[in-house]
Amino acid sequence: MIAIVKAAELFTRREEEAVSPKQERAVQEILSRVKREGDTAVRELTARLDGVELAQFQVKESEIDAAVATISPGAKEALALAARRIRSYHERQKSNSWIEAEEDGTVLGQLVRPLARVGLYVPGGRAAYPSTVLMTAIPASVAGTEEVVMVTPPGPDGEVPAITLAAAREAGVTRVFKMGGAQAVAALAYGTESIPQVDKIVGPGNIYVALAKRMVYGQVDIDAIAGPSEIVVIADENADPVYIAADLLSQAEHDPMASAVLLTPSASLAEGVTNELQRQCEALPRAEIAAASLLNHGALCITRDLAEAIELANRLAPEHLELMVEDPWLWVGQIKNAGALFLGPWSPEAVGDYLAGPNHVLPTNGTARFFSALSVDDFSKKTSLISYSQRALLRDGPGVITLAEAEGLQGHAASIRARIEKEE
Questions:
Q1: Is 2 helix (H, G, I), strand (E, B) or coil?
Q2: What EC number(s) would the UniProt record show (predicted)?
Q3: Of 170, 230, 276, 319, which one is the catalytic site residue?
């Protein structure tokens, strides 16, 4: 079910989801059609690709009211709890504008402003992902974004799951549209008669959504290109194989392309985890998906010691990294690359997916080396503020002239020289 591999094999086994020229051409055609034909193209593509005929895309407020009324008290309470914790965590991320005056009268600063309108892509269709609604909408709200537009594929009945709409209401989404795939990304990027153009698109999706986001980057901003989910668990001989197997399966059940890896210096623990994976996987409703993930992208690696496990994890730069060791805090300082870090046996990855507070939209496929979790900063922009005094410009101007002339930009130098000469 899952292979025991040597350290070097961890990196040869890892590969990106294959993108074919046919898929790229299909997405490019969809983008061009939506840009050219607007709502007509979105409606036709939704009917052809999703099998749903829609008279209108936007979900009415009355529909959201009706959906919220069907949610059980327990579900409402869980959504509210998750929203409170996510909001509280992201409130701590807010950056403030600042202005600082220097003795010579120069004033420098930075203005922090929210993006005006953002688009959230929330996967849907035959599944519901209310957690993704909360994780993408709440940071935008905390940043002060005025308009938060959400797109999500409708189910076969043409409707959006009630729990998804309830999450949108809880998170403060402004408008919800029933559409998905590359056509939804195109609609957000270019705007149509019904769907407003946004400044940025965030949220995970399938390969067609990922390709579309990549292709519209520059027309709008995007968060990142999301790949299959992944988890790395570092464990010592004291860790519980039942917990480790459960956490590996929590990612393996996402997708046959998902990656679940255990790094441990304990051969006996690895054997215990192997047995537990077999036992627990058989009981999962998504056992077939999880088994395929473990077979093709899962791995158990016996390391020399915990130090080597940490070094391998830093090279893998996983989306989720669990430290299932006796004193995880001793090792935190050595973790350089991870989307999210989970410490100890009572911090399973699943709690981070739903309501711990930190964002679950995380860098994948090794991009934690340079990308971060979705945050309030993703919904803000920063403007530099410069107010030089006469005294300061006369003092610093010769330096500007020297540098401008070194670059061959005489006009830059002249703009400074004109002011200096007038004051001489």
A1: coil
A2: 1.1.1.23
A3: 319
Question: Which among 113, 115, 190 has a CA at the least distance from the CA of 146?
Answer: 115
Cβ–Cβ under 8 Å, residues 341 and 321: yes
Report the chain's C-alpha Rg in angstroms: 25
For residue 1, the model assigns a pLDDT of 79
Strand 340-343 relative to strand 320-324: parallel, antiparallel, unpaired?
parallel
**Residue 297 annotated in active site:** no
Give Cβ neighbours of residue 395 (< 8 Å, ≥ 6 apart).
104
Contact in structure between 161 and 128 (CB atoms under 8 Å): yes
- Is residue 319 annotated as part of the catalytic site, yes or no? yes
Domains defined along the chain, listed by start? 21-71+97-222 (3.40.50.1980), 227-370 (3.40.50.1980), 388-423 (no CATH)
CA–CA–CA angle 36, 37, 39 (5° rounding)? 135
Task: Give me the phi and psi of 33, to 5 degrees please.
Answer: -65, -45
Across the chain, mean pLDDT equals: 95
* Rounded-to-integer distance, Cα 302 and Cα 300, Å: 7
Q: What is the pLDDT of residues 87-106, one digit of tens each?
A: 999 999 999 999 999 999 99
Of the listed 230, 253, 297, 320, which one is catalytic? 320
Q: Is the Cβ–Cβ distance between 95 and 380 less than 8 Å?
A: yes
Annotated binding site: 121, 183, 206, 229, 251, 254, 320, 353, 407, 412
Q: For 300, phi and psi rounded to 5 degrees? A: -115, 130
User: pTM here?
Assistant: 0.94
Between CA 50 and CA 32 the distance in angstroms is 19
Phi, psi angles (nearest 5°) of residue 239: -70, 155
